[in-house]
Amino acid sequence: MRKICLYHRSDLDGKCSGAIVKRHIPGTEMIGIDYGDKIPWKDLEGAHVYLVDFSLQPWTDMIRLADVAEKHK
Question: What is the pLDDT of residues 24-66, one digit of tens each?
Fold first, then answer.
């Protein structure tokens, strides 16, 4: 299963959060995002997604992410 980490690329705590995910979950694809960026929805379909130091805006995109990404059981 693909593992993707979306991290806030515009500040050091976002980069550090992403680095922690990368360190503890090898093979994770890292995607830096910032507010106003287009979310790569196609890339996220069916993937196990980690979202760190960031929230999607508008909040309905958080619901969309839950619908698109792999469900953790």
Answer: 999 999 999 999 999 999 999 999 999 999 999 999 999 999 9
Measured distance CA(26)–CA(65) in Å, rounded: 22
Using CA atoms, how far apart are residues 73 and 59, in angstroms rounded to an integer?
23
33 to 45, 72, 73: CA distances (angstroms) = 17, 23, 26
DSSP SS3 for 49 = strand
Q: What is the DSSP annotation of 4-47?
A: EEEEETTSHHHHHHHHHHHHHSTTPEEEEE-TTPPP-HHHHTTS
